[in-house]
Recover the amino acids of this structure.
């Protein structure tokens, strides 16, 4: 697995948690919101294995309800454990992105010189 | 709103794939319903199935399966029950005819053929049939598989020699009752009539053979009448299934 794919996998997990933390939502809506944020997902369906993993690790819970489209729709909401995990993700991301950003900035500076 | 043929086929393939991997039925129902809902909305907005599952359906199925738990309990009940069902099917007809016997060739042959038919049907169910779900070939493939396995079963039956156990009439009846119990249990378990309907039709021939006097049994007129009646019944079943499918699609 390439570094980008692996990185994206971890980021997708955290981002889905962040999205679900904003309020109860379902699969299709999640992909729409990801797109609004210009989140590059390989394919829309790639959120489902991640959602299954989040649920398996008890970070989110789900409930099946009838949808206007026809089949039953699965709505996700975040759990207490999920909220704690989200906080950890945020901290990690802030540290990581600050580090990467500063490194890249420095690199840009060298190029100019 | 309806799913496109391609999307519908993908859902069927996914369901069969996950079932064959021993995943929990409840979880399978949830994930397929969820994807069905997504595909419905996405297709209504003009997106193609590749936008949703990527370019390799097989890889996508694997990624889903990897995140789902293996249901050991379901698998542990299903496996022995399937073996019991196969045993019941192979004992039912000879016991009904009052000719149940066991020989070494018979046991080994039936064992091997059962294992082979498991593999054949397993392969068909997961890999081949979902691709033909909406075409006429579906019935042709199922029919061919049925004819091949029945043919081998019959060949083993004819090869059978030197039985070391020949059932008495009482034992034959007990075996029949045992088989019926297995069929009914399966019908309850699988929530379908198939394990009752198939033996029901299977039983006519042997019962007739056992209880009709020989002079009627060899009379060509009666044989012709029976063949005509059977053909009519089978034709009407096929017609009924075909019409039901068509109605479903409409």
């Amino acid at each position: 697995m390439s570094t980008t794919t692996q990185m994206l996998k971890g980021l997708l997990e955290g981002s889905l948690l962040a999205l679900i933390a904003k309020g109860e939502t379902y699969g299709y809506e999640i992909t729409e919101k990801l797109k609004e944020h210009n989140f590059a997902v390989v394919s829309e369906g790639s959120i489902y294995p991640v959602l299954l993993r989040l649920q398996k690790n008890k970070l989110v819970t789900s409930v099946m309800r009838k949808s206007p489209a026809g089949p039953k729709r699965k709505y996700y909401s975040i759990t207490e454990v999920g909220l704690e995990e989200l906080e950890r993700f945020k901290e990690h991301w802030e540290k990581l992105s600050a580090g990467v950003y500063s490194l890249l900035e420095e690199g840009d500076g060298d190029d100019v010189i | 709103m309806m799913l496109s043929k391609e999307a519908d086929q993908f859902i069927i393939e996914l369901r069969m794939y996950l079932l064959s991997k021993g995943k929990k039925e409840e979880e399978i129902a949830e994930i397929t319903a969820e994807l069905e809902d997504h595909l419905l909305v996405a297709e209504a907005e003009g997106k193609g199935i590749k936008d949703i599952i990527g370019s390799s359906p097989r890889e996508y199925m694997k990624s889903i399966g990897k995140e789902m738990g293996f249901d050991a309990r379901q698998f542990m009940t299903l496996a022995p029950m399937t073996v019991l069902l196969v045993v019941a099917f192979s004992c039912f007809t000879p016991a009904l005819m009052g000719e149940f016997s066991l020989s070494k060739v018979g046991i080994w042959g039936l064992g091997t053929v059962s294992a082979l038919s498991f593999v054949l049907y397993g392969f068909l169910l997961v890999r081949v049939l979902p691709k033909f779900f909406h075409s006429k070939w579906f019935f042709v493939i199922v029919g061919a598989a049925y004819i091949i396995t029945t043919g081998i079963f019959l060949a083993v039956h004819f090869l059978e020699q030197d039985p070391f156990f020949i059932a008495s009439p009482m034992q034959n009846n007990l075996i029949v009752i045992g088989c019926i119990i297995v069929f009914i249990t399966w019908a309850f378990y699988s929530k379908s009539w198939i394990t009752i309907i198939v033996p029901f039709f299977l039983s006519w021939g042997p019962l007739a053979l056992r209880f009709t006097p020989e002079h009627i049994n060899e009379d060509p007129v009666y044989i012709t009448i029976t063949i005509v009646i059977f053909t009519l019944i089978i034709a009407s079943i096929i017609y009924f299934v075909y019409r039901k499918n068509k109605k479903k699609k409409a």
About this structure: The two ends of chain A are 36 Å apart (CA to CA). The helical segments of chain A are 3-21, 27-36, 47-56, 80-112. Chain A has one domain: 3-112.
